[in-house]
Each structure stands twice: as structure tokens, then as C-alpha cells.
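Bench log. Compound arrived from synthesis this morning; before running ITC I wanted a structural hypothesis for how zinc ion sits in the protein. Inputs:
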Amino acid sequence: MTAPIAKLSFWGVRGSTPTVDPATWRYGGNTPCLELIAPDGTQFILDCGTGLRMLGSRWGTPNSGGNPETHIFVTHYHWDHIQGIPFFAPLYAENNEFHFYSFRSKFLGRDSLKQVFEAQMALPYFPVDMSAMNAKRKFKEVQGGDSFTIGENKITTRWLNHPQGCLGFRIETPAGTVAYATDNEPGDPKLDESLRELAQGADILINDAQFTPDQLKTTRKGWGHSSWKEGVKLAREVGAKTLVLFHHDPDSTDRTVDSLLRQAREEFDSVFAASEGMVIKLGGTGDDVQAHMPGARTSLRREAQFRAKVSGVTEEGKEFQEETVVRDISLQGALISLQNLPQLQSELQVTMETPGEDGLQSSMLLKGYVVRIDAGAEKGQIAVGVVFTD
Ligand SMILES: [Zn+2]
Ligand SMILES: [Zn+2]
């Protein structure tokens, strides 16, 4: 008999608002959306941030046994947790069926989430009428303290400390337990206890880590979020196996998140910073949690000194060719020093000489597009940012 396996995918990890700043690209800019496929095939979606669109665009990969049941848990109604709904293509297909779970907000009353749907799609906020949403939708109200089963999985909810309320979800599958606790500020004794119950012994604890411990004590106090340090403390208290830092601040660059992660790793063995595209497998062989990153996002930038021949078109439309040195190379792009001023968004051919084995030189031809021009960085040189397209 093979051991049951659950698969947890991160489609959106950014808090508050999506970011498209290249400095936030590696961890990702989409707002919260997670997907958990339980061993029995049940599909859970946690939150409907902009990451939901990405999940929707990869919908319908063959799944033996027909349509899986999809259960969508919405923690609360702040924009970053609902704004993916109108862009979730599977909602417009008749054969799909979704079960939505969320709480009755005192600001919205009965059928809160249903009202959110209608408000989001109302004119003039969205061009498509609600009637185009053909998928079957069932709405269920839940509240903190509820417990129910879906397939072989046990779900528990708890209130968290967040402006206008927020629910945390715990999903116990035969392959392991995931506790999802985003948008929570520690410091309320009763709600802190409720969070500990939610996270007790979890294999994966996904915890709000938007702010630094300093910000949490000072300028961001009362904003409804947490820090890596609080996450580590909680993970220790409840004996969680792996901590995932989540809901990254839109102002946190990849380097900032790297640093938060580094600090957390000094104090707790198994910590990851949630990253768009990250997949964590629970269960299977061994006790270790296996995390994978999509190849495109794991490529590191490297300091390099490759000699290169560059040919392209200048601002004035003149062809040029020159020899230079390529620095800071990655699979995505490079920063190249040129004397010619290339046209922004034009194509550059970059031939790089790479020192091969046994000192033999070989060359590498790359096609790139000019995405950035920084004249005057160095005397007589123009720094040109290139994104490689193949
Ligand atoms: Zn949020
Ligand atoms: Zn919120």
C-alpha cells in the first residue's frame, strides 16, 4: 500500500495588493490563493486573491475519475482575498460546481460571500454580467469553532484577530495537516489561544509574516498582521513541523523576504517563505516535507565577467556591434555596459564567450529585449538591462 500524499500549491502569496515590481518577482506578486489536493482527490482552494486567476488558467488538467469536487474557503472580505473571483475562468463553465465557505459579516449580513460576488460583478465595476457565471455555486456559512468533514478530510475553523474579522482554517488529511492562518495579529489572549488550537501539531503552518518584529511593535501595530518571529514562536508552542511565512508586504522586495526568511531559519529548523509556484508535498516516504520551486523562479542571479559581442539597433535606428563584458547574469536577463545607446524594447543579439572545459572557449548566442537603459551610470558607458527571450 502506498502512503497517502497531499499536494499544497501556492498561487498567490502577497498581502494587501498585487505587486508587479520586478524586485518582488521571485516570491511573486499575486494576492493570496492556495490549493490543496487531498489524497482522496478533494480539491480545496484557500482564498480568492489574484493568484486564483492563475489557478483557473491551468484548470482541467486530466484528473482521473471526472470532475473533482472543489471546496473554496474564504478567510475574509478584504480585497486581497476576493479580487480574483471575477477572473476565475472555471466559474463561467456550466459543468463546474463550487462549494464556497465563509462567515456572515456583520457589515453584509446573510449570504455575505454571495453579496460580495454580486457587488464585484455589479455595473460599473465589471463588464460581464453575473448571469454569465454558469458554474454551480453553493454557499455555506461557517464561523469560528466549526468543525466538519469533506471526504476523508476534517476541517476546523477558528476566529483570528483582524479588522472586521477573519477565519483561520485547519485541514486534516490522511497525508498530514495544514493550518492556514493569514491576516492575524497576535496579542489578544483569547484569539491567540484559538490560533494555537488551530495550529496544534500541524505539519504545515502557514502564518501571516507581513511585518518585521519591529514594525509589529510600533508603526504597524493594530493593522491586523504578524511577523516571522511570532510565527516561529507559535510553531514552537504548538509543535508545528514546518512554518511557511506568508502574506508578504507589498513593499517587501525579494531581498527583504530573503532576510526575513534567513532570520527565521536561525531560530526554527523548517521554514519556507511562501513563493508563487511553490509546491509542498505532504505524506509519502519519510518525515521530511518536500518543497519544490518552478524552475524559472529558482534561477539565481550570478555575478559574472563574460566577454561578449553585442549587436543591435541604436536609438537612431543604426545598427551597431561592439565588444563588452556581461555582468550580473541570470537566465532571465543581464546588465550590459554599452557605448551605443540601443532603442528601448528593441531586440539585441548577445553572443557570450564562456570559458569552457580545458580552457577552450565556446560561445553562447542569446536573444534579448532592451528593458532598461541607464545612461550616465559610468562615464562613456550606458547600462542596458536585457531580458532574454530564449
Ligand atoms: Zn490580506
Ligand atoms: Zn485582511
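What the model suggests: Residues 211 and 220 are 8 Å apart (CA to CA). Residues 254-267 form the longest helix (14 residues).
ITC booked for Thursday regardless.
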